[in-house]
């Protein structure tokens, strides 16, 4: 916040236009009331969050009286909580924030209490504490300072100039692993509140008017964003929880449909094929009578037999001969397991490329090599990783694969074949440790930059209930 060192004399009428730039409110009318000590801002959905030593408050502001459909999300540090008595004699405990007020090129810090002023003609009350010594009040006049316009809330510049605000973010994770810890550390370092939520302890209230997510006996608060880290063993339940957050209107880094599609290898490959994205020849069948033709469809042995919901290289078998392939397929069918058969890209030599996609960009890549004697390159199976420079075609393939599955964050695994890059797998919950270590990039920071861009405050139109009030 800034203070003008040599203020010019200002004259205020009983109503004036002003702006609160730190809150993303470029134009608001305020009633000047020297009989009131503190200033008040009309706010709804007021909710505190953050740690006890640095508490913050988030709230919604309707800057235009009579326009309930236009909502500006705001947040600010809490500097006090005090009892305020209104003009009708009612006492109310209110959060107090400090922000910058700007009028006619001059700006200075003011304290504001947050309260619901719904139904009142003015959505902001300017008390005497906010009035500087050089301000003269002309009680019989109004709009002695330059008039602003509500049109600014409908402009592109409004979104671009919106101030950064602290976000409340949930990480859906059951594990205290490297990736989860990095998300918490990086988020808090950027001023956000990050809460780790055990997905399996969430339960949901499904109804049309008030969809909710509950956790440990309480309704979860509104989050600005959710980062799903859904384990393979709880894919369906985890996706249902994410879907509930989507129903509420929360921005989810990866949506439920993308998570489900990426976990089901058959579904994922069908989506990739529909988008004409290169991948190893793949076949799937249910009847044991189809085994011979199934093997021929992918080009005969050697081939890969893979469980549909395999992760970290588990449930993936290399059959080097036709007889071995028939035996593995027979064993999987005996277990009533769903699997697919895939061409083995021999020229990849047990190596693949992990491309990490955030938003629409490949932000990092690494080459993974299998342990001695192991065709799988997964780091969890003892593989190793090294730096790699990817080609333009590989970069575009990874981007297209993540987009096809509707994922804002994805680990796309590519094989380098004689016919160009082939997508082996798309992971909706990629780990950060290996790729941050190898690439030297702060992946968590890059993810938060995308979240801040997507969850940035901007005018929200809920529903049209009344005509816009005229500027004057």
UniProtKB/TrEMBL annotation:
Alphabetized PROSITE patterns for the sequence: ATP_GRASP (PS50975)
GO MF term set: ATP binding; metal ion binding; ribosomal S6-glutamic acid ligase activity
Keywords: ATP-binding, Ligase, Magnesium, Manganese, Metal-binding, Nucleotide-binding, Protein biosynthesis
Pfam families to which the protein is assigned, alphabetical: RimK, Rimk_N, Zn_protease
Protein name: Probable alpha-L-glutamate ligase
Gene3D superfamilies per record: 3.40.50.20, Acid Proteases (2.40.70.10), ATP-grasp fold, A domain (3.30.1490.20), ATP-grasp fold, B domain (3.30.470.20)
Family the UniProt entry places it in: In the C-terminal section; belongs to the RimK family.
Keyword Ligase attached: yes
Cofactor(s) required, per the database record: Mg(2+); Mn(2+)
GO biological process, one term: translation
Organism of this sequence: Thalassovita gelatinovora (Thalassobius gelatinovorus)
Listed InterPro entries: Asp_endopeptidase, ATP-grasp, ATP-grasp_RimK-type, ATP_grasp_subdomain_1, Peptidase_aspartic_dom_sf, Rimk_N, Rp_bS6_RimK/Lys_biosynth_LsyX
Entries under PANTHER family matching the protein: RIBOSOMAL PROTEIN BS6--L-GLUTAMATE LIGASE (PTHR21621:SF7), RIBOSOMAL PROTEIN S6 MODIFICATION PROTEIN (PTHR21621)
Entry GO terms, CC: cytoplasm
